[in-house]
Amino acid sequence: MATRQYELVLLGATGYTGHLTAEYITRNLPTDLKWAIAGRNEKKLAKIVEDLQSINPDRQSPSIEIAELNKEDLDQLAKKTKLLITTVGPYFQYGEPVIEACAKNGTHYIDCTGESPWHAVMIERFHEIAKSTRAIMIPQCGLDSVPSDMVAYLLASHFRKTLNTGLSNVDCSVHIKVKPSGGTLATLLGIFSAYPLSHLKKTTSLFGLSPVTPPNTTTKGQSFLSKLTGIRNVPGLGWLGIYVNAGVDVAVVGRSWGLLDGGKFYGPDFHFSEHGSTKTFFGALLRNVIMAFGFVLLAIPPINRLVRKRLTQPGQGAEKELWQNDRVRWRAIGHPSLPSSSANSNRAIASFSYDSGIYWLTGLLMAEAAMVILRGQRTLANELGGGLLTPVTLGEQYVDRIRRAGVIVEVERE
């Protein structure tokens, strides 16, 4: 890789998330970074470069690479760079040839997909190929699913360091206030028609992406009402209902469980659940009814097509002036793998929070992950020999970088 033209290529810079990622790179990554933006429309890419020059005129502008989303163009693009970030979605439609080109050419890869059903297919097809070329490939390295992956990892690390034991039940609450981009909405609507329900169910479960056989664990302490309604009241977290992206996130957490020492680091008692935070029982009930009804409707093809026509188009998103209203909070309570009395008295809380644009946050998370891979010390991702991995395989270096970038990441005994 030493002779490659670029350290980093950003594919999809003309889209909403891609443009923000390019701006983050311009403002925050080292000025000696050799990078390029890539896409199909040279005129639009040139406008992006012009915008970036006005942000930081002292740094060298990125080069422009024209590439169609076909095997030949992507193969040539992958050969030019050490690492490729792609924001071109929906990934189930456009992502496979990008992953294939990177896996075959030993090019490190990062994306911000929230499509674990597609992610599962990519693991099956390209994980071993990527290992053979030692390409470190990290899908779901944005808002989906870095926060969830990180709070679970922080809790497991805390108990290993302080009690020399594994991690048992984890309850995670998510508070998120944001207007989704057009690309996010297009993906959510399209995924229902792209895969059978059996595949969707499997690949949005905790161990649906795990490389090793999962343990036989069950959640503890759920009342009959909780099981019936899907609503829980967890001390320290409050009322919890359905979170729309929970299945996407927990699948990555479960893959990390399997990648970190074959499940031994987190331990055989591990279980992780993720929920949306609400203030009251009735708020949680209303959330669950709306979510359940919505999922049923979106699974009906004519309704799905109608909704797609009505909602925001891909490439659109909130203006920066509205970012002040964006905020995200992940708060997870974990128990150590100890007898019940000891586990309850040794609970720990991990949190991940950020106040500002969440699509800017996604760019931040991908760019900082790229810097760990490109210029950081050796990580678990290297020790695993590459392949389709998860954000936490970048370890404490990654945690430290995003902290310095303004993300609040903490873990402490309750």
Characterize the structure shown.
This protein is an alpha/beta fold and 414 residues long. It folds into 2 domains: 6-143 and 361-393, Rossmann fold, CATH 3.40.50; 146-357 and 396-413. Helix content is 46%, strand content 19%. It contains 17 helices and 14 strands. The chain has helices spanning 16-28, 42-55, 71-80, 91-94, 96-105, 116-133, 146-162, 182-194, 197-203, 224-229, 246-259, 281-298, 301-310, 340-345, 358-375, 380-383, 395-404; strands spanning 6-11, 35-39, 63-66, 81-86, 108-111, 136-138, 167-177, 232-234, 238-241, 271-278, 327-336, 348-354, 387-388, 408-413. A 7-stranded parallel β-sheet has the order 3-2-1-4-5-6-13, with helices on both faces. A 7-stranded mixed β-sheet has the order 8-9-10-7-11-12-14. The longest helix is centred in the N-terminal third of the chain and has 18 residues, at 116-133. It starts with 5 loop residues before the first strand and ends with a strand.
Characteristic terms for this protein:
about 425 residues, Rossmann fold, 7-stranded parallel beta sheet, 7-stranded mixed beta sheet, about 45% helix
Write the layout of secondary structure elements.
Elements (H helix, E strand, L loop, with lengths): L5 E6 L4 H13 L6 E5 L2 H14 L7 E4 L4 H10 E6 L4 H4 L1 H10 L2 E4 L4 H18 L2 E3 L7 H17 L4 E11 L4 H13 L2 H7 L20 H6 L2 E3 L3 E4 L4 H14 L11 E8 L2 H18 L2 H10 L16 E10 L3 H6 L2 E7 L3 H18 L4 H4 L3 E2 L6 H10 L3 E6 L1
Parallel strand pairs: 1-2, 1-4, 2-3, 4-5, 5-6, 6-13, 7-10
Antiparallel strand pairs: 7-11, 8-9, 9-10, 11-12, 12-14
Helix pairs in contact: 1-15, 3-5, 5-6, 6-9, 7-11, 8-13, 15-17
Pfam family, one: Sacchrp_dh_NADP
Protein name: Saccharopine dehydrogenase
Organism: Patellaria atrata CBS 101060
